[in-house]
Amino acid sequence: MIQTSIRARLISSFTAAILVPSLISAVVGVWMIDRQITSQAQTHVNADLQGANEICRTYLERLENAIRIHATRMIIYGALGRRDRNALEPEMHNILQSEGLDVLTVTNMDGIVFHRTRNPSLHGDSLAGDELVHRALKHKAPVSDIAIVPQDALTRESRELAAQAYMEITPTPMASPSGKTRETSGMMFRAAAPVLSPDGRLQGVLYGAVLMNRNYQIVDKIRKIVFREVLYKGREVGTVTIFQDDVRIATNVQNADGTRAITTRASAEVADEVLRRGQTWRGRAFVVNDWYFSAYTPMKDIQDRTIGMLYVGTLERPYTDSLWRSLFIFLGITVLGVAIVTWVAMVLAHRISLPIHAMAEAAGKEAAGDYAQQVDYTSPDEIGHLVDRFNRMIQELARTTQELKDWAATLESKVEDRTTQVKAMQNQLLQAEKLAAIGKLAAGVAHEINNPLTGILTSSSLMLEDVPPDDPRHEELKIIVDETMRCRKIVKGLLDFARQTKPQKQAVSLNQVIADVMSLVGKQAAFRDISVQMDLASDLPSVMADQDQMRQVVLNAVLNAAEAMSHGGEIRFTSRLDPTFRMVQVSIADTGPGIPDEIKDKIFDPFVTTKKTGTGLGLAIAYGIVDRHGGTISIESRPGRGTTVVFRIPVEARGENGQLPQA
Q: In the beta sheet, which residues pair with residue 312?
């Protein structure tokens, strides 16, 4: 603590004197540079966007002028006047090639197609409903626009154009949710001009267009003019994209593999601002695989509807690299200044704090548990007096600590012993309470049921003796006698469980026990809609067990399963040998509703049941029987997915110590 308040404080004071102003200067300087660079970059992007818009307008104007000039040619208005398509076809093809058009079509004065250059066999349909053609006919003046042309219109002009426009849209993480997976229409730069005879009469319209989908001529031209093909670390600094709605249809933005990133979509933020609100979006954006200073502006058709976007972007990396260089310069200056000041501070602090340093180290070792420390320092001043008191304190602390350790060890041992005793007493008390409850019930059952059962058994036995074996009633009386005897065994089982009756062990086949129980209950009404499946190991060894008590365990589990599946289901018996512990495992699984989670941990407690009628003793009795045989029983259940009762009985009897035999 003293080292921190003297030596470290001296060092920190000197360091703070240079570090704080340097850091403030660095932060402010980098912030100002960042703002200046960002502002400069965004200004450039705005200018680039204006240039790109101007190039697009120029392109449309050039297209409009070309169509206007060709519309005045005699071969066109002459062919329209004579209705001679054959004379028109060669010249139309030359115009299409020389002007780099994708569509060149002539209509008559009613807007009916007279000749299609790329599909001359198809004519006679009407383009009068097209707004561009309509305005050229109505105003007798050339007009141009950007339009979305549907697939059927593209197909009429040329199947190749429809194929060029077709795009499978690539899923884009930042795009707005959309069920649209493909784009079939195409974006076209179009122009139309009236065809007039020398005397000024309207003959028709010459209509030309260029498809933008997968047409990289205009975006590459914009990049070349606006960005001058400047490279940064081998990459083009500027990028240009034409969007049809929010889908890239022409771009020089590249994917990671170097291909053009067409068919990808713009982010939801950009699409909402530009397409939905018709505003220009400017800002920093992640475009496909890198950050750009970007600008997006709406592209509108002749009816002022936003149909797409024009994007220009400048790679952000040159600006960020410049910013990082500035930051590293500021940080280098700061680190150098801090290093010099820290060295000076450390030298001064060492000279001042040397007498205290030895005592600080001794205190640290003492705090780690080494009480054999003694500071070897003498001085007639206050520090020497402090060292002497410090040495005495360590000696006294060592003695007191040893006493506390001895006392804590004794106390911990006593607490553990007492905790073990308390837990054992609690377990004994809980078991005693459970057995007492079962004992009371067993006594009541014996008192209330044994006497009537004795009368029934005596009477039915006498009747059985009086009835000849071939009498049909003989078998029914025999069933009454057998079932009455079984009732007495059940009552006896309750009493045996309460009194912890020792099992009468003999070699027992658990497979045979299962078969006996199912032959007894299988024909009862409760099992009418229940399918019973057996998956019993054929080589299962016998176990040392009380056969009647084993039947009781299986019977209780089977009856519980049947009552849980009142509307039908399946019971599956599985048996197998666990060779590691020399135990036979039996599983009884049903497809019933399962056991609620709130009573799952108490399912083996007496009187716990999910049935409206029932004592809740079945599984408690089964638990006691299995436990007295040295085995284990457990329940596996999930609500709605059925219940499985699993019990394991050792092949050999337990020893006197209650442990399972070793394999």
A: 240, 295
Of the candidates 181, 187, 144, the one whose C-alpha atom is nearest the C-alpha of residue 164 is 187
Opening angle at CA 489, ends 487 and 493, nearest 5? 115
Q: Inter-axis angle of helices 9-71 and 217-227, to 10 degrees?
A: 130
Contact 103, 209 (CB under 8 A): yes
Q: For strand 583-590 and strand 569-578, is the pairing parallel, antiparallel, or unpaired?
A: antiparallel
Give pLDDT tens digits for 376-430. Answer: 767 676 666 777 777 777 777 777 777 777 787 788 777 777 777 677 456 545 6
133: left (phi over 0), alpha (psi -120 to 50) or beta: alpha
Q: How far apart are CA 97 and CA 545, in angstroms?
A: 101
- Amino acid at the residue 497: F
Residue entry with tokens 């990049």: 223
Top pLDDT among 460 and 661 is at 460
Indicate whether 435 pLDDT > 60: no
Backbone angles phi, psi at 607, to 5 degrees: 70, 10
Say which amino acid occupies 142.
P
Query: Which pLDDT tens digit goes with each residue over 622-631?
Result: 888 888 888 9
What does the pLDDT read at residue 216? Answer: 94
**pLDDT of 432:** 45
Look at residue 105 in the predicted model and tell me its pLDDT. 96
How confident is residue 237, by pLDDT bands cut at 50, 70 and 90? confident
The residue among 577, 560, 548 whose CA lies nearest residue 652 is 577
- Cα 405 to Cα 465: distance, rounded to the nearest angstrom: 84
Cα–Cα distance for residue pair 529/227, rounded to 1 Å: 82
Q: How far is Cα 28 from Cα 525, in angstroms, rounded to an integer?
A: 89
Q: What is the b/e burial string over 296-335, where b = at least 16 CB atoms within 10 angstroms of the residue's CB? A: bbbbebbeeebbbbbbbbbbbebbeeebeebbeebeeebe
Structure-token match 């329209």, residue found: 80
Is 307 in a helix, a strand, or coil? strand
d(CA 223, CA 251): 10
In three-state secondary structure terms, 315 is strand
Domains annotated for the chain, with CATH where assigned, are 72-163+184-210 (3.30.450.20), 377-500 (1.10.287.130), 502-650 (3.30.565.10)
CA angle 588, 591, 595 (to 5 degrees): 85
- CA-wise closest residue to 249 among 197, 315, 331, 183: 183
**What is the C-alpha separation between 489 and 621, in angstroms, rounded?**
13
State pLDDT tens for residues 450-508.
Answer: 778 778 878 888 888 888 888 888 888 888 888 888 777 667 656 655 655 678 889 99
- On whether the CB atoms of residues 193 and 67 are closer than 8 A, the answer is yes
Q: Backbone phi, then psi, for 535, in 5-degree steps?
A: -130, 70
CA dihedral 230, 233, 235, 236 (to 10 degrees): -20
Give the dihedral of Cα atoms 340, 341, 347, 348; nearest 10 deg. 160
In the numeric block, which tokens belong to residue 539?
A: 């080589």
Residue type, 122: L
